[in-house]
Amino acid sequence: MEKTLALIGSKWKVLILRELSSGLKRFGELHRGMGGISQKMLTQQLRQMEADGLVRRRAYAEVPPRVEYSLTATGRSLEPVLAAVAQWGQRYLDTQGHPERSGENPA
Predict the structure, then answer these.
(1) Residue 35 confidence (pLDDT)
(2) How confident is the model at residue 102 (pLDDT cuts 50, 70, 90)?
(3) Residue 99, preceding peptide bond in cis (omega within 30° of 0)
(4) Which of 16, 40, 84, 105 has its CA 20 to 30 A from that of 31?
C-alpha cells in the first residue's frame, strides 16, 4: 500500500491519471482539464510519473513543438484501483459525507 500511495498519493497525480484514462492528451488539454494546477506543477508531476513508468511522453519535432501524454500499461493497470477509490468515495458521500443525512450537526 505504501508504494502505491507513494506513486499516486498526490491530488494532482490522481487527477492526471483520471484525465489520461480517456486517452492521449496534449499538455494544454491536460492543463485545462485539471483546473487549479499551475503549468510548473503539472510539468513536475508528469515528469515524476514518466520516471515511475506510469505516463508516456511523446515529443514531436515540429514547430511549434507538440507533446502528447498517455498512460503506459502500468498506468492503465491502476484504473481498477482508482475506480474502486471513486466508488468508495461516492458511498462515503452518500452515507457520511453529508452531515444532514447522517444526523450529525455541521461544524
Answers:
(1) 85
(2) very low
(3) no
(4) 84
